[in-house]
């Protein structure tokens, strides 16, 4: 949480230039600040996934990282996974997805992330929260030493983000800030 | 000494925080341009169609930017927003479309909230123990403080086969003096005829969505999965196009126009009826 404070402040300062009571529209400058915060969370998720998937990660450490990763998500978030040969979506709760990733039967796993992302506009949903989608690409390489088989795929991850205005008390003053939580993630295997 | 402690703490913290494995870590695989070129979200299709992002996709243009909705930029974007590998949209038709959309006097843009576009979602449901395909037509509507997608219509073969109103001599009827006999002939109509729809007005249209919801609430229909999603756009005056997702190698990928039709007067209704296929 502490590491997000500078970004919260950035989002707060970006919003401070606009009269708060004026409207709930998100200005381009505030949107940019929210995008940065969302991207930070996605970067954390990517880092956690890499650690959870790695065979060098101890079981206890992987569990600790899974706890941290789960904290990024809104309750009930799901992963919906499909492949090129199987268009149907396999649904997993986030924790289950991580557990499956940890238990993959390879001797070596290397998960890396392409240097590209796309962040959608933010749309307001009926309850007043904003929702957006961040797209990133992940490369997975798994090696089985016994069979010498190498499995490799590239998946597109479309990550829902929920953006909500929250309040906190700092030194007796009420400060408003925008918070970002991750939601459902659609995982699609690409032909790349 | 205090400075040294802070420095040490900083070094230790940075070791924990930078394992170099996440997004934008050193050593991340580099996109060779394919992912950048791909229209990754429907949202990006809107932006590119309207000329609201930079050519490299790194900057979102707002109405305060000089390049916002730049005509030349839009022209370049729209010409690569077509599926150029599998769809057979004539080049002359594309040019005509571009001319209309990029008109100097009356350029046309896509608007997320303006309606006149909807999603077609192919799903599977378990109906009476059997996996069946159901097409859901979804539309965006204002609700509460924002917007939501709702199911507007459905298409489900088992329902459609239920309502085949016979024609001509095969169609039963209640004779015009039935009222004089207190409609006692309803017994024959409903007990001895398995086509009760015969006794409905000419304009009667079964409401498949209501039946669908009824069956779901009764536990006879259970959601199974989603197999495909596409979009239909009627927002551009006198044009219809279909948006599909193309997941394949190369640079012409993502959400692309796969079908383009120029609409004459009355064509819009015909195309919509064809898509919804409610009869």
Automatic annotation (TrEMBL), chain A:
Secretion signal, residue range per the UniProt entry: 1-21
Domain of life: Bacteria
Name of the protein this chain belongs to: Uncharacterized protein
Keyword annotations of the record: Signal
UniProtKB/TrEMBL annotation, chain B:
Keywords assigned: Signal
Keyword Signal: yes
Signal sequence residues: 1-18
Protein name: YARHG domain-containing protein
Lineage start: Bacteria, Pseudomonadati, Bacteroidota, Cytophagia, Cytophagales
